[in-house]
Structure formats: C-alpha cells, structure tokens
Design goal:
With about 230 residues, the chain is of the alpha+beta class. It is about 35% helix and about 15% strand. It contains four helices and seven strands, in the order E-E-E-E-E-H-H-E-E-H-H.
Length: about 230
C-alpha cells in the first residue's frame, strides 16, 4: 500500500461546497442542482477540455473544488487517483495491490443463448446419427464441441481458472496472457499449422469415411490350413 505524489507542492484546500461528493451526486439521485445543460448538441456541441488515459474502472468521478477523484486498475494495483479539474494533471495516486474481478452480473442472456444452441446441436447430431447421415452428424458434433468450450469460458470470464481457497487468486485473462512478442510468434505459428492440421483431419475423414458405417460383413467359410492326421491301419 503506497501513495504517490505527482507534484512536490502540497495541495491547497478551500471551503467551497462539494459539487459531486460521490456516486450519483450529493443526494444519490443523479441530479446536479443549479446546473443547466444545453441538450441541442447540434447547435451547441460539447467541447473537449482535456484528455488523459486512465486505467479501467467501474466508479464515477467525485468532484470537490478544482479537484476530481476516481478509481482505476493499473496493472496489479487498484488505484485511487486525484486530478486537477481544469487541466487533468495528476495530483496524487494511492495504490493497493489488488484486482477487481466482478463481471457485473456475468454473461446473462448470452450464456442462456449459447446453452440453448448447444442443446439444439446435440439433438441434431443424435438425429443425424440415427438416420445414418455421417456428414451432418460430424459437423453438428464439431460445432457443439467448439460451442461447449466457448460456453465454459464465457461463464468464467474474466477468469480462466478459478481458485477454490481464495477467489482473488484466480487465474484471469489479464495475468495469464503472454508478452506481445510471444503472442506474435504464436499467431504466426497458428496461421501456418492450423490449416495443415485441418487439412490432415479432413483427409483422414475422407479416407476412412466408408469404414465408419455400412453393413456387417458376412462371416467367411472356415479354411483348413493343416491336413487332418491319417488314420493308422
């Protein structure tokens, strides 16, 4: 836990009333009293005063005097940061080594749609197998397999592997990703070898396609390999 000062000079405080002290304003109703906003943006478009990149976050800004405050995620640290309202220059930063993992309600309807599609594909695959249509059955099974994996990771996002003792120690998409160079190399390798693997799988299916079904062959007549022993006189 540490706090960083962006400038060595101390921050001056004043006695002006708090304009926006926290979430949804002074009365927690999303209303800014005494402020009129022009809603005709075609005639009076909003003007950008300043721009500054900040880390991802879920909080709104709090405003006091000429200072604004917000929360950000910067790498492995959760950050409370203060900026100048007029210029956007940083004033101070407070860090805690933590990461916010809440998915804000999860995938919701998307997960339900994926589960429904997965069930429909499995039913179609069963019907195609019953009707001895190997091609559509193979396609439905392959798509269902891909959709099963996608559904699993969608339900876990942003986690990749959940930690049982402590949810905060789960492996996430962010901390499981490789460096930019490693991802670039892996992308080139995948672009080269993935088509080759797909071609090989398609070729093996084409070669063995007639041996995966058909009628059971009739048993052949037994053939005598060794002659019977001669009877003794």
């Amino acid at each position: 836990m540490k706090t960083e000062a962006a400038t060595p000079a101390p921050v001056e405080t004043d006695d002006t009333p708090v304009e926006w002290p926290g979430f949804r304003g002074p009365h927690r109703d999303g209303v800014a009293p005494g402020v009129r906003i022009k809603t005709d943006w075609a005639a009076s478009p909003p003007v950008q005063l300043w721009r500054r990149p900040i880390g991802p976050g879920w909080s709104s800004f709090a405003v006091h005097g000429d200072l604004i405050y917000t929360q950000e995620q910067r790498g492995p640290d959760e950050v409370v940061a203060c900026y100048h309202l007029a210029t956007g220059k940083p004033v101070w930063v407070h860090r805690d080594p933590a990461r916010f993992y809440e998915s804000n309600g999860g995938p919701g309807v998307l997960l339900e749609v994926m589960l429904g599609a997965l069930g429909a594909l499995l039913v179609l695959a069963f019907v195609f197998v019953h009707r001895r249509r190997s091609g559509p059955a193979f396609a439905a099974t392959a798509v269902a397999t891909v959709l099963l994996v996608a559904t699993l990771f969608t339900s876990l996002y942003p986690r990749v592997l959940v930690s049982s003792p402590d949810l905060g120690n789960s492996l996430t998409v962010d901390n499981a990703s490789s460096s930019h160079y490693a991802l670039a190399v892996m992308t080139v390798v995948a672009l080269i070898f993935t088509p080759l693997i797909l071609l090989y799988q398609g070729w093996t299916y084409y070669v063995f396609r007639h041996r995966l079904g058909g009628e059971e062959p009739e048993p052949a007549e037994p053939v005598e390999i060794l002659p019977e022993p001669a009877e003794s006189a």
